[in-house]
Amino acid sequence: MRRIHYSWFILLITFFSIIVAGIVRSSSGVLIVPFENEFGWGRSLISIAFAINLLIYGISGPFMAALLEEIGLKKMMVLAMTTLLVGILLTLVMVKPWQLLLIWGLIIGLGSGLFLTILSPYVANHWFEKRRGLAVGILTASTATGQLILLPLLAIIIETYSWKWAIGFILILSFIMLLIILLFMKNSPKEVGLLPYGLEEESPVKKVVQKNNPIIIAFSTLFEAIKVKEFWLLSGSFFICGLSTSGLIGTHFISYCIGFGFTAVTAASMLSFMGIFDLIGTTLSGWLSDRFDNRWLLFWYYSLRGASLVFLPFALNEGSITLLIIFSVFYGLDWIATVPPTINISRQIFGIEKSVVVYGWIFAAHQLGSAVAAGGAGIIYNIFTSYTSAFVLAGMFCLLASLFVIVIKKQKIKVEVSQSYKA
User: What is the pLDDT of residues 377-396, one digit of tens each?
Assistant: First the structure.
């Protein structure tokens, strides 16, 4: 039998690392009400802490991409997972609002940054020559899939015992993942005497090593990208992507369902349905992005997501578990399906060497949208004692995003690709 290429083991390690980081960050969805009850903090304050978290891990993306080139993949993953462990441990002893903001806003935000932003395209670009779109699809699916599937378990632990037991559970998962990274992760295919999967011979063109520090690399790449119209179109659509996914659904969906009489476990189970179908949808999206026009894929993803968000308040008002399941399946297929086409377009326009850092900045816009939704929906709830307006507005913004991506010209992509290779 032919040996399995080590790139697939790297994919597997990265997949589960992202799942663990994702469940740490997304546990905010089941911690809002317990934190209210335990500490007496207002929902708007807790929402702001989680909004800072989303913003910090998004903004850190381009700098993480630059650091990866400087200190290597394995060290960065170890450092990021250790940061998450520190944040989880400190959660068990926090008692003040400023501690919530520091721990969940800054520490866990920074720890999540590498795993949930640019790790997927970095691993796909450096470990895969063939099946790159599929690799990106699998890895980006893990960003939401694992966290959503595990949320019902966290909700059950909280209801049966307490939120501290749930924190202890994700602490154990994070520690196990840190050991796996230390033992089996590698920086590049060369460390195991291989070429990237699908590459038959090494390119004679040697990679130019950047001598600048990561901050200079990140900002110089940004200054180049902002001159390209497509960067703004992708960033604008990804702002809305974040606003309509992790910032809104990931943070407030459970609380929204509880307001209509559904239990936290039922709501978290709906998120797990989304996670299962996200794995299918995003992996399929990666496969499709290798074969079809990525602009039209994004157009339909955003349009259908907008329709599903407008449908959600109707399903909750009806109090129908069947309608809620239909929403969860339909929305789940589209949760992160936007990522593979966005990464592909970014790579086509800016070239493989710069695309990871550029995508880091595009993803920063995604997380800015997430932060706006996480904090804004909490404020809307305090004003109207309902989340309905927030979800309907998010659905309308998705329709706007579908127009952003279809404006990108196919011919423009081809021109930028040729120019990047000449450079």
Answer: 888 988 888 899 999 999 99
Q: Rounded to a whole number, what is the distance in angstroms from the first to the last CA of the chain?
A: 42
Q: Are 282 and 340 in contact (CB under 8 A)?
A: yes
Position 14 scores a pLDDT of 93
Residue with tokens 């032919």: 2
Spatial contact of 413 and 229, defined as CB atoms under 8 Å apart? no
Per residue in 146-181, pLDDT (tens digit) is 666 677 788 889 988 999 999 999 999 999 999 999
How far CA 363 is from CA of 1, 238, 342, in Å, comes to 41, 7, 10
Asked if 323 and 315 touch (Cβ cutoff 8 Å), the reply is yes
CA distance 72 to 75: 6
Report the C-alpha gap between 145 and 335 in whole angstroms. Answer: 9
Structure tokens of 268?
Answer: 């978290």
> Which residue type occupies 323?
L
Q: Is 270 helix (H, G, I), strand (E, B) or coil?
A: helix
User: Three-class SS string for 197-258?
Assistant: ECCCCCCCCCCCCCCCCHHHHHHHHHHHHCCCHHHHHHHHHHHHHHHCCCCCHHHHHHHHHH
Q: Which two tokens stand for residue 345?
A: 């377009």
Query: Quick one: 3 exposed, middle or buried, by C-beta within 10 A (0-12, 13-18, 19+)?
Result: exposed
Please enumerate in sequence order all residues whose Cβ is within 8 A of that of 336, keeping only pairs 6 or more positions apart, or say none.
140, 141, 143, 144, 245, 278, 281, 282
How far apart are alpha carbons 304 and 395 in whole angstroms?
Answer: 9
Distance of CA 102 to the CA centre of its chain: 21
Six-digit token string for 191: 């460390």
Own/partner contacts of 172-179, CB < 8 Å, gap of 24 or more, are: 173/20, 173/23, 174/20, 174/24, 174/81, 174/84, 174/85, 174/88, 175/85, 177/16, 177/17, 177/20, 177/81, 178/78, 178/81, 178/82, 178/85
Q: What are the tens digits of pLDDT across the range 399-411?
A: 999 999 998 876 4
Residue with tokens 């992708």: 234
